[in-house]
Amino acid sequence: MSTSHYKRVLIKLSGDALSSDGESIGSRALSHLCAEIKKAYDTGVQIGLVVGGGNILRGGRWSKESGVDRATADYMGMLATVLNALALQSALEKHGMETRVLSAIEMRPVAEPYIRRRALRHLEKGRIVIFAAGTGNPFLTTDTAAALRASEIDAEILMKATRVDGVYTADPEKDPSAKRFTEISYQEVLSQNLQVMDAPAISICREKKIPILVFSFIKENSLVEAVRGEPIGTIIRGD
Questions:
Q1: Residue 93: in which H helix or E strand, if any?
Q2: Model confidence pLDDT, tens digit, residues 166-186
């Protein structure tokens, strides 16, 4: 019997969530992620995951630093997300969860090509679907990919796991006086330039009326609390 408040969710993880002990993909970080995802998985919720690649390479930053053209750098960043997806897949399956990696860039020996109907079938069969390679297009972030995939799979909510426990008036790591919102509208996020997610991602969720929950993944049990609908983090929804 399901104990989740939701039937289907899309979880956006930063690539940095996989880093620990000075390693881009660290065993300690993977173990923590898998333990937390397993608790949520055991509630019966259907889970889609989008993972960034910033622990390995950020396309925009790399382009500026290296002189490599932006499109090429972004494709490199997409490949970094595939590395993270494969590492996460292996770790999740060792924790007893069935998974599939679906890539927006075809690489059949290691991942299935992204096809919406295939993703839906996997979710309905109780498999965790890890969406890799962003949208398959340069100049778009994995935040936008997460919003797009959430829309395509009819997720009831997009959950963005971060280092901080919600949306603040300023960066709480730099400004100790910053105040946390418990709820805020899409329009307020955009107008106040709070940079929770990029504007295209917010716009997609706004158009499709998909709420966004921003919460800290570092805190133990935060994800299972989120899928049970408990009040944590900051919820972004209607104007």
A1: helix 70-94
A2: 999 888 888 889 999 999 999
